[in-house]
Amino acid sequence: MLQHFYSDEAVRYNSMEIAVILQKFRELLHYNKTLDQHFINNSYWIKLPEPALLSQFPFIEKGKLMRTLYRMKELGLILQKQDQSNTFWFTLNEITLASTNITEPASTQNHQPQVFASGDTVNSQVKRLWSDVDDQFIMESVAKLVVKHGYNQQHFLDIWHTFVSSMDANGEQPPARMDLIQKRFVAYANKVQLNMSHANLRYQNTVSQNQQVKEQAVENWLQYINHPREDILCKIDTSKLQTSIVEVWNSFINKSYEKQIPLKNDYQIENGFTNYVRAWVGNEQKAQTNQSYSAKRFEPVNFEDKSWADDIDLEGL
Q1: How far apart are CA 29 and CA 49, in angstroms?
Q2: Of 89, 111, 117, 215, which residue is least crowded by CB atoms under 10 Å?
Q3: How far apart are CA 90 and CA 82, in angstroms?
């Protein structure tokens, strides 16, 4: 596929590498033209520090890449400069540009020359939008954010799109330099992650505190084992109860604790115990009734099994 796509220029220059480099440079120049950045001496330029240059062509060995670029310069396909910070600057000559849809503006009278290595000055007459910046130009920053924060790529692309929409809505134009765009985005993404971290911490603290409060409220039942509340017992009708009220009380307390019901107030104990006693008396009466019949379909009530109380409203609320 790749060889077929670049076949014309690969055959013309007897080099697949030249064809690939030309295509990549055209894409980068088109991006710079879209943002109207790095316009120097009536031409758009590509600014690439050496690591960035190598990362653009990971499939070409460094030595071969440098030799190919030198050959392209000798053939007049590209113009190349290098500043003191070991940053490379490239542009395509007019003939090379003419073979693509990327052409220089007919009039450049509004452009002001800029210091070559700075890349800061752009045409103030051109309205640029953050949404014009293609996602591919921030993928390196996204990859670093993924490593730093541990979220997936789509998470940070969503943050990027939110950031872009916010900047455009506020009428802010993107900087002319791509590195500044990346820095702005990374700062924004780090702030979002920090806010998320703080929110998660507050949430975890709240959940932890609520869990501690609930556990303590559940533990409060145990203080009433073998210590029935007389003020509650005196309100219970025990005339039909055959079991010791204290035994029923302890069973109620244990069942409430087993169901992990938070104990909040006395009303809850009184109403829950009233329901429990009513069910207990019903079971006692059922047991007596069953014993008076010989039919095998009746099973005696097992008072050791308290699962019958699972559906009783022990909270009484």
Answers
A1: 16
A2: 215
A3: 9
